[in-house]
Amino acid sequence: MRKAIKEIKVGLGTCGISAGGELIFEEIKNELEKQGANVKVKETGCMGMCYMEVLVEVSINGESYLYCKVTPDKVKKIIDMHIIHNKPIDEWIIKNKGKILKEETFFKKQKKIVLKNCGAIDPGSIDEYIACDGYKAIKKVLESYSKDEVIDIILESGLRGRGGAGFPTGLKWKYISRSKRNKKYIICNADEGDPGAFMDRSILEGDPHSVLEGMMIAAYAIEADEAYIYVRAEYPKAVHRLTTAIRQCQERGYIGNGIFRSDKNFKVTIKEGAGAFVCGEETALIASVEGKRGIPRIRPPFPAQKGIMGKPTNINNVETYANVPWIILNGPDAFASMGTEKSKGTKVFALAGKVVRSGLAEVPMGITINEIVFDIGGGIKDGRKFKAVQMGGPSGGCIPASLGDLKIDYDELVKTGAIMGSGGLIVLDDTTCMVDMAKYFLTFTQNESCGKCTFCRIGTKRMLEMLKKITSGEGQEKDLRLLEDLAYKVKDNSLCGLGQTAPNPVITTLKYFRDEYMAHIKEKRCPAHSCPALMTYRINPENCVGCSLCLKNCPVNAISGNSKEIHTIDREACIKCGLCYDVCKFGSVEKV
Amino acid sequence: MMIKINNEIKNFKIDLLTKWRENGALIPLLQSAQNSYGYIPEIAIHYISEILGVPSAEIYGVITFYSQFHTKPLGKYVIKICEGTACYVNSARQILKMLKNELRISVGETTDCGLFTLQSVACLGCCSLSPVIMINNKTYGRLTPEKVNTILKQYRKD
Can you give the pTM of this predicted structure? Predict the structure, then answer.
């Protein structure tokens, strides 16, 4: 009998690691050693199902089984039953030889182009990438396409920038290719600054070579020979994986002088960001790469004309580059056949917030918000009510549940007041206060404003002050008018995308949730019971059992009551820290 | 321990002598200084100023622009609490409150014993595991106040 080839893969993206993946990885190795089993253990990137971490894939002779929520206790049993005795443990398995046993709807509506290798291959191995058609596209381009043909393919595919604004990628390349300057640069914008977005991190951690290949193709098309990847400082794992990938490419002659035995040169340098949200804006990013303060400048001239060191520079986002090799290999028509009239292909969304299944989902453009939240996301946590989705981070807006049938594409989203952004999709339920949400984003943008434009620097500060006033119950009706007026002024009088979009969260919440603002102002009430100044805690005598847990945890001794008797909260002394609410096991502390 | 520190400062000096020619060397050099010293001391600013020919004032301007750079020493363990949207709606405020209480410092400060520094970051990109904190380069997810307590205890022991 031929000996079975056995392999175990552990999902070790940042999400897997924070869920304890490294411990599982070690545990598996130890256990295998103990059992004397000869099994390869590998790491892989994010598999998308972050809510099921730690994920472990066992494959025997090419047949794979995906185990979810693996704990050190489970490791022992999996190895004993499955690896040694060849009996898969069905109750822990999500996917069995490609057949989905559980969570079927999470996979059903997805279409993987960018994420096809994420969680499937070992990101530290260039050979595994090559085995999945890796570096085939750049070879095809070098052998059989002229630079104009490459640009035409990208134009025909309808690919638009995945970083936020959605500018057609082919068009950008065309502008730069026309420039006759002899030195041009390529930049990969991996400064994923939007809170709530993590797809670029997952792509870089799970499939760094696909981004490098996309950059090589772009470099060929616009005749650039030098590239920078600007990565956020908060992503150490992504930097590590990219560094390894670049080294491997250099060893094979894919990066360096005369790449793939052609006459082209390609040099890549990683630039680590130093923590400034505004550096996601392209002119600020260029300033930062040049070692200056990341302050945006007036466009034109666009980076396509004057970028790094005054030379023409092409900037695309991680996900945009990762799409390119697929388009070259499968043709522009295959890509354009997906999506809506003006938004083609797929988009990766980072699904998080109050949703049952959070993680990464790659879906064709044109899918509805409801399909993402309910079919892929599995609905709202704890059976609560779906209230809104926040899309596009601090530059985006809140789309109410009533617009759940909206088809997601660049232009439809802009009509609602939100933007596609980089693809963060935060689901909000009825416990989230929309005024507080607007305040949250404005705190962020106000903090991150570089200070160059007056309206962005001071306008956002004044807007934030008004929102603070409203959430603390001191708002007046005239504040709303002022807030709205200022919001449009900040939008119109700021130089870069940060200021122009900073008021979006306020504008959209005012548009769809004005009644919540009014409740705060007129009735001095927070409908979501979330703003501390406008709510109090009380103990419901019907379910209080007198366990004294709240009493022991109260930092200001505001709770009284003898053991086994009903407790009460002294509203005067209460500082509304919410600890009693969190610790009560009987749900008897209520927000009113 | 002494030898280790000297070695690390050596790294910064090597970087000074090798990286200064690169495009936009200032930020990588500041990062190198911060990695070596744990913060950016005045002396490092003078070194960099000398070798790049950039005025110290301009370097100081760059340092204060980026949230990653510090001109004061940090604690042994830097706790970064994520203030991303997903963490925010999943009660990161509770975790922050608890950390502040437990360490008796506010965001941006270092404990008297020099063990912990508390910082807040915009997003750590682990939204599906929110709320999340990062201690040095290690991420901890799906936190509850109790879990944070256990983690702190572990670091205190080490």
Answer: 0.92
